[in-house]
Amino acid sequence: MTDPETDLQPIGSTSRAGDTIFRGLATASAVVIVLALAGVAAFLLAQGLPALDGAGARSYGYDNIWVYTGPLLFGTLLASVIAMIVATPLAIGVALIISHYAPRRFAKGLGWLIDLLAAIPSVIFGMWGIEFVARNMVPVYNWLNDYLGFIPLFAGPVPTSGRTMMTAGLVLGVMALPIITAICREIFAQTPVMHQEAALALGATRWEMIRLAVFPYASSGMVSAILLGLGRALGETMAVALVLSPSIVVSFNLLTAESGSSSSTIAANIALNFGNASGSKVDALIFTGLVLFVITFAVNFLGRWVAARAVKKG
C-alpha cells in the first residue's frame, strides 16, 4: 500500500514540460531585450562621446556639441509637449467613452479602431500631416496670428504650406493617442464596481461618479499612460522629418516656418542629415541620438515605475 501523504502533492509542485519551455523562452527573450538595449547604449556611448571634443566644422560649425544639440533638444521637447496637450484630453475622453458611456458593441469596435492607429507607419502619418493637417490648419493659424499674434507663440508670418511646429505637434499627438487611450481604458475598466455603485447610490451623476471614484483610482495609471505616450512622441522620426525643415534654433514660435525661426527635433535632424554626414559629423549626430536615447529611456522608465508603484499599492 502507498502512503496517501506521500502520493498527494500540491498542484504547483509538479512542473509540466510546456511550462518549463515557456518559462525558458520568456527568460531568454527578456535577456535578449536587455542585451539589445545594452548594445545600443554601448554603441551610442562609443560613437557619440568623441563628439564632446569637437568644435567648428566637427560640430556643424558650432562652438561645441552642446550648442549644436541644445536647440534640437528644445525642439524635441516643444513638439512633444504640444503632442501631449493635444493627445491627453482626447485620449482620456475616448477611454471614458469606451469604458463607461458607449454601448458594449460600439465601444468594442471603437477600441479596435483606436488600437489600429498604432499599426499605421509613421511615414503615412507624415504624409497625412503634409497633405491634410497642414493645409487645412492654415486658416486656423491665420486666425491665431491675427488675434493672438502679440503672443510670441502665435506670431507670423504663417506659411501657405502650413508645415509648422504646431502641425508637427498635432501629428505627434495623433500618433501618441492609441498608447494613452489603451492604457487609460484598461485602468478605468478595473475600477472596483462597488466604488462606482456606491457613488451612484448616493445620488451622484455618472460624471460625478467618474470624477469621485474612477479618476482617484486611476490617477497613477493615467500619469503612466501620459509618460509612455510622451516617450513615443519624443522618439518619432519620419513624421516630423516630413513636416518640418531642419533648423538649429531655439524658437517658441509655433506658426512660422521661415529659416531660422522654427525649431526642429533631434530625430528629424538625424534622419535628414545622416545620409550626407561623414567623419566627425557622424559622431555629432550620434551624440544627439545618445541624448535622445537617455531622455526617452528616462521618460519610459518613469512611466513604468509609476505604474508598478500603483500596482504595488493596490
UniProtKB/TrEMBL annotation:
<dbReference type="GO" id="GO:0005315">
    <property type="term" value="F:phosphate transmembrane transporter activity"/>
</dbReference>
<keyword id="KW-0812">Transmembrane</keyword>
<feature type="domain" description="ABC transmembrane type-1">
    <location>
        <begin position="73"/>
        <end position="303"/>
    </location>
</feature>
<keyword id="KW-0813">Transport</keyword>
<feature type="transmembrane region" description="Helical">
    <location>
        <begin position="65"/>
        <end position="98"/>
    </location>
</feature>
<feature type="transmembrane region" description="Helical">
    <location>
        <begin position="170"/>
        <end position="189"/>
    </location>
</feature>
<keyword id="KW-0472">Membrane</keyword>
<dbReference type="InterPro" id="IPR000515">
    <property type="entry name" value="MetI-like"/>
</dbReference>
<dbReference type="InterPro" id="IPR011864">
    <property type="entry name" value="Phosphate_PstC"/>
</dbReference>
<feature type="transmembrane region" description="Helical">
    <location>
        <begin position="21"/>
        <end position="45"/>
    </location>
</feature>
<protein>
    <recommendedName>
        <fullName>Phosphate transport system permease protein</fullName>
    </recommendedName>
</protein>
<keyword id="KW-0592">Phosphate transport</keyword>
<keyword id="KW-1003">Cell membrane</keyword>
<dbReference type="GO" id="GO:0006817">
    <property type="term" value="P:phosphate ion transport"/>
</dbReference>
<feature type="transmembrane region" description="Helical">
    <location>
        <begin position="284"/>
        <end position="303"/>
    </location>
</feature>
<dbReference type="InterPro" id="IPR035906">
    <property type="entry name" value="MetI-like_sf"/>
</dbReference>
<feature type="transmembrane region" description="Helical">
    <location>
        <begin position="110"/>
        <end position="128"/>
    </location>
</feature>
<comment type="function">
    <text>Part of the binding-protein-dependent transport system for phosphate; probably responsible for the translocation of the substrate across the membrane.</text>
</comment>
<dbReference type="GO" id="GO:0005886">
    <property type="term" value="C:plasma membrane"/>
</dbReference>
<dbReference type="Pfam" id="PF00528">
    <property type="entry name" value="BPD_transp_1"/>
</dbReference>
<comment type="similarity">
    <text>Belongs to the binding-protein-dependent transport system permease family. CysTW subfamily.</text>
</comment>
<keyword id="KW-1133">Transmembrane helix</keyword>
<dbReference type="InterPro" id="IPR051124">
    <property type="entry name" value="Phosphate_Transport_Permease"/>
</dbReference>
<feature type="transmembrane region" description="Helical">
    <location>
        <begin position="209"/>
        <end position="230"/>
    </location>
</feature>
